Each structure stands twice: as structure tokens, then as C-alpha cells.
Amino acid sequence: QVQLVESGGGSVQAGGSLRLSCADSGRTLSTYAMGWFRQAPGKEREFVAATSRGDSTTYYSDSVKGRFTISRDSAKNTVYLQMNSLKPEDTAVYYCAALIIAYISRRASEYDYWGQGTQVTVSS
């Protein structure tokens, strides 16, 4: 069973940075494609970033491209989301997710396991 745990959320002023982490203490994440999604109050969950198995391919939403970076440290069994130049519209609960079968995806419905989420609040 995959158990994902996010950390690193918090409150920051616009223009600031945060780094989110996603770890699975029980298994290795290196064999899975991984994604980050977010959900703001009253809105649907939306795709943020994804990395394929082997990390040869990465996807980003247009709203975060150039500001956010997804990466993986297999030795630490952790996936990261580095978020720079944060904007108030980035405020949301951020979730990491693991994709077991497919190579990579932007679709939340295709992901098999989810973390509990971590709150990111960006003030203007």
C-alpha cells in the first residue's frame, strides 16, 4: 500500500517561495509517475505538475510554468515541488499523487494514490 505524506506548506507573501515534499515511508516512489495537484476553496482540483517514471518527462500547467519545478530524490524516496514567485492565486491545498500504470498524466482521475494535502496560503 502506498501512503503519501506531504509537508512544507505554509503562509508566505506574494513573490516568496516554498518547497513542498511528498514521501512514502513504506515503498519506493522511484518506480511511479508522480503528480502535484491543488484545490482552492469552491474550485475543482486542478493539475499543477507531473514527472514520469525515470523523470525523463515533466508536465506543468500553464499557470505555474516557469515558476514551479517538480523533482525527485530517489535516495530520499521523496518528490518535491519548488514554488517560486508565488502569487495569491496559488493559494490552495496541494496534493501529491502516485500513478502506478501510466507513464505520466495530467488527469487526476488516472492517479492511484493520494496524500492528505498541505495548505499553501499566499498573501498580497
Q: Quick summary of this structure?
A:
With 124 residues, the chain is an all-beta fold. Helix content is 0%, strand content 46%.
Structure description:
With 124 residues, the protein is mainly β. Helices cover 0% and strands 46% of the residues. It contains no helices and eleven strands. Strands 2, 4, 5, 6, 9, 10 and 11 form a seven-stranded mixed β-sheet that branches. Strand 7 and strand 8 form a beta hairpin. The protein starts with a strand and ends with a strand.
Q: What's the number of helices?
A: 0
- Helical content stands at under 10%
Low-confidence stretches: none
Distance, first to last CA:
40 Å
Our Rg estimate from Cα atoms comes to 13 Å
Give the class from helix and strand content and strand pairing. Answer: mainly beta
Helices and strands, in order, run as EEEEEEEEEEE
* Percent strand: over 45%
Mean pLDDT, as a whole number? 95
Number of strands: 11
Largest sheet: 7 strands, mixed
Overall, the morphology is: globular
